Amino acid sequence: MTSSSTPGLARFNTLADDEATTTLHEVCASAAWGRAILSRRPYASAEALLLASDAATAALGERDLAEAMAAHPPIGRPKPQDPTSSREQRGMADATEELKAEMLELNLAYQERFGHVFLICATGATGEQMRDAVKSRIGNSPEQERGIVRTELGKINRIRLTRLVTEGE
Question: Does residue 80 or residue 110 have the better pLDDT?
């Protein structure tokens, strides 16, 4: 991502607050994150927007992080009619039925252990990589996992914001 302004960033900077709030909610469902991003507009560059996102993600409290995670569907089960989750989870689309069944079991075990969906930046990952990640993370402590989840959420937010400010270019 270059540091120069893009037409997509200019569009975002000039959206009415209610439209920008709705747009940001599609990037990250945490209202606190959205307010933090909205409060710093206008952004001089896409990089400035991404850095603001990093800071806002790092500042999320436990409830805010839970709010953000609640909007993410389980790996292998993208939301129907949601092109974003389908695109992000593309690595599971061609997975074998066995791998899909294994992911369902692992997702349920993870959710039972941690009380929330397994969150991973799935963009570009294969089904096997996602399976291996949940297998390796399920043994983490809740504190370790919160740190990893925050990092993964930050990656997802960056990808979605980048797409937002480069759409149509």
Answer: 110
